[in-house]
Protein: Calcyclin-binding protein
Amino acid sequence: MADEIALDLEELHHLQTIAKRPRIVSLISSEICNLQKISYHYRRIAVKRGCLGTPSQIPTPISSASKVSKDPALKYITLGSFSWDQDNDKVKIYISLEGVEQEKIETEFKPVSVDVKFHDVQGKNYRCAIAKLNKEIVPDKCKVVVKPKRVIITLFKASKGNWLDLQFKEDKLKPSVDKDRDPMAGIMDLMKNMYEEGDDEMKRTIAKAWTDARSGKTADPLKGYP
Structure:
């Protein structure tokens, strides 16, 4: 098994040198990282069985993250306020934060998400995370640069073009188009989304409309809606 993994890694490294499209390079790099972890696991098993040298002689998997101890008990302050801009190739996120040390930054870039942690910044830990970006990025090319009074996170776009927003936002008020679907189902979904997103007055109005419709006072659930 270990020999097969070594051969796979060798071929993936070769493909990585000839690949040109950013998304393909990202996929190959991700698979190389996974195989390196599997290979490391098998080599440790071999050490325990006495087939190889000591664990200290085994090369560790390559990681793009900074060397920061990962303690699940750590608490982070969420950095929800930041600015950003873009050009045709990349997006830059600007965070106002003083006292950040480059070696105490932990990054996790994925094709559609970003998670950057800043440890021990004047005794506190901070975190900037975007669960779903507007479009895909190239994780291996992304980086974090520390300035005296701010931090710049640079995300390289997987495909050139303009982003309408930094984060992906689903249009909940836009009913889905389905020719075979009952037309009333779209209205029902729209009403449900309006109820979930609306204020207390909106919710009372919609709730009354549904109650009246069910009791037979009106056949139209939208009747009475301003």
In short: The radius of gyration is 26 Å.
